[in-house]
Amino acid sequence: VSPAHDSDPAAEQLLSLRDYEHAAARVLDPAALAYFAGGAGDELSLHQNVAAWQRLALRPRVLAGVERRDPGVTLLGTRRPHPLIVAPMAFQALAHPDGERATARGAHGTGTVVSLATLGSTSIPELAQAVPEATRWFQVYVFKDRGVTRELIAQAGEHGYEALVVTVDLPVVGRRERELRTPSSAHADAIPGGRAAGAEGALTPMQFAALVDPALRWSDIERLVADQPLPVIVKGVLRSEDARLAADHGARGVVVSNHGARQLDTTLTGAEALAPIVDTAGDRLDVIVDGGIRRGTDVLKALALGARAVMVGRPLLWGLALDGASGVQRVLEILLTELDVALALTGAPDPAQLDRSFVSPAAWVTEPR
Ligand SMILES: Cc1cc2nc3c(=O)[nH]c(=O)nc-3n(C[C@H](O)[C@H](O)[C@H](O)COP(=O)(O)O)c2cc1C
Description:
Layout: H1 3-6, H2 9-12, H3 17-27, H4 30-37, H5 44-54, E1 56-58, E2 73-75, E3 78-80, E4 84-86, H6 99-108, E5 113-117, H7 124-130, E6 136-140, H8 146-158, E7 164-167, H9 177-181, E8 186-187, H10 192-196, E9 202-203, H11 205-209, H12 218-227, E10 232-237, H13 240-248, E11 253-256, H14 270-281, E12 286-290, H15 296-304, E13 309-312, H16 314-346, E14 359-361
Parallel strand pairs: 4-5, 4-13, 5-6, 6-7, 7-10, 10-11, 11-12, 12-13
Antiparallel strand pairs: 1-14, 2-3, 8-9
The structure holds flavin mononucleotide.
Flavin mononucleotide is lined by residues 35-36, 49, 87-90, 117, 119, 139, 167, 235, 257, 259-260, 262, 290-293, 311-314.
């Protein structure tokens, strides 16, 4: 935990990710806030993404000898210091002028993998040059212009990105009413991937996303795996059948995700979809989960259900908006501190000790505050 930052009185009261959320809502421009915070439709899944983790009760072991704890996990065959990953999120310049560069710096400060979005406000080489030492993944939207996508993937390989996260739950853009009511826009020149795909002038995020090809199929995933050397992770899977297909077509991992509830409302949450997917394909794929991870206990529950790692989304944008790279780092440190306490207090000093016996459906149900 960063002592330098703890001495900042303004930041001192920001103890939880929820504190960051509330504080960021006060400083962000309304259009940026609508883009970051909103979900699709009635935002029922947005609410459930958080509530689904809360519905799981922990079943701690006692007297388990927890004096030495290590949150490390193995991901894509590599040892990582902990299971957190920064989710790919587009348009981070709407939160902070340094955008993805600040996010990657904050992530690197805690040894966290950072994902750069195709529709990021920083290009693949710019991010690599700014934070060469960070472990970087590249999130792929396959554009209608496949040549552009091939070019971006080649760039990611050349610039030391270590995996491709291919997002498959956005053949079209979800109906996000907060965004429709309070639109934000970015100039095509400010979104290098969108510019490359032919965007011109000022576009809303939903207009940029319309560049994505709705004709994408499993055979395209197989080709992508075959055509380039980076491991492919398919992001946006909620059914076991699709996880099996991902493995059959050569993916190394899946992200069990409803895209932060931004695409189709009333879907399953990642938390709900996770266990059956681990049972079906967990021996062939690294299963990652996201959506509504807001506490160290949420991370622990994901690991207990069989996830290897979790992606964290919006809370990092709140840290970014409030305090750039330090804000991102601080949000990750809070989660890591909470995870450490949770490992100790559940009697599982490292993730390998966790299994489903550590969680059960809660007898009580809370509403997210
Ligand atoms: C503002 C914003 C932009 C996002 N942009 C992308 C994107 O470009 N590509 C993608 O695969 N997912 C994108 N996502 C989804 C995240 O990667 C992730 O699945 C989701 O945010 C996790 O849920 P959480 O925000 O509740 O942690 C975005 C999410 C947000 C909040």
